[in-house]
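Re: manganese (II) ion structure - here you go.
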Amino acid sequence: MPATTTIEEKTEGQKLGERLGFKIKNTWETATEADMAVVEAFAGRYKAFLNAGKTERELTAQTIERLREAGFVDIEDALRSKDVLGPGAKVYQNIHGKALNFAVLGKRPLAEGTAIVGAHLDSPRIDLKTNPVYEDAEFALFDTHYYGGIKKWQWPTVPLALHGVIFGKDGVKKTIRVGEDEDDPVFVITDLLPHLSHDYDDKKMTEYITGEELDILAGSRPFKDEKAENKVKLNLLNILNEQYGVTEADFASAEIEAVPAQKARDVGFDRSMIGAYGHDDKCCAFASIEAVLAIAERAESNVPDKTVVCVLTDKEEIGSMGNTGAEARNFEDFIAFLLAKSANTSVGGNGSYCGDIDLRRALTHSAMLSSDVNAAFDPNFASVFDKKTCSYLGKGLAISKYTGSRGKYGGSDANAEFLHRVLGILDKNGVRWQFGNLGKVDKGGGGTIALHFARLGVEVLDCGIPVLSMHSPFEVISKIDLWTAYQGYLAFLQDV
Ligand code: MN
Ligand code: MN
């Protein structure tokens, strides 16, 4: 016999509350088993992406490799070629090996605008100084200058890997990547034992360890010689010379970054989260890359309506300055190059000329999701969050109408019309979204790459994946938010 259940009739007030109110649910609650398998597979690929590329250089190289496999051509080669770029053409722009743009050309003229997703590839870290090697108390150390907004006290005692490039005497660029393989040595910034920490414990946290004290332990064994000076440093230089063919002077032009050596890991018994270095902003970069590649993959039979573009920038963590940052004109140049090679313009794709009006129109008619991580609500630090408008792990793509701090200063504020349009696209495609305001008013704030695209006239909205412990050596995101972001970016690129 079937069990009898009584379905309680909802009251008028309950019904009215449902109709007029707004409640954001946890995405896991409505995910099916099939959804979960897709989420898990996507997360697995993301972890591999993170482990293979911890710096902007590595991620640029690995992404370009994937793009070439997918049939993308370098814009420089396209410009040299006599061929005109038609709908469905796949092109990328390598920006000094540290940033890139890539696009799938649509059916409609570029001057009618493009659909853009953009993220940044750089993350906070510890850079070696330009003359970094020194010896103190028979230790060899690397002097450093930290990069981006870090809490300095979080970085001592974290196993570090070194990534970067250095030029040897032979003029050959050597790639450095030490500390990632199981058998590699790692490096570390030391910390003081609690037994002797009394004077330090009373310091302000911002002063506990200074920028100059963030030096990295690199060796302790002296070079065997009675008369030589600074023998531990000498021994280190000797090892570097044997392995890379470099001398101390070669560090003057090197770029070497120390990043946490650990791999991306599942977090929690339920494995619902991923802990890793550099989710900011590699998780949004990954979701953006995947979304544009999904469109590229089917472009043979299903050319997108508008041209879709993925923008991956460098230097966001230090203000987007420099020729690899969003402030530079790389994106504008990329669109100009595409226009010059497109048949579908007012001047017609001869490869050497881009109509200025076409370029201005292409920019001002473009729409963009600036995809960057958001501060997820953390119950341990509840006082700084506005629970009504902050983002939560597992509740979907976090939408930030505006960024900035202390009166929205220095931020980018999306137009109501554009925001309404984007939310409509997300709703229509069943993409779960939530609010993403970074903390309570006057508690702090932050910026993204959005304003640099807004400056060009692009309609731009900040959105992204909520993260716990942002800018720490081990940040945490939800697997389902990563997948939701991908779905959101895909929906936006197709429908905007
Ligand atoms: Mn970021
Ligand atoms: Mn950041």
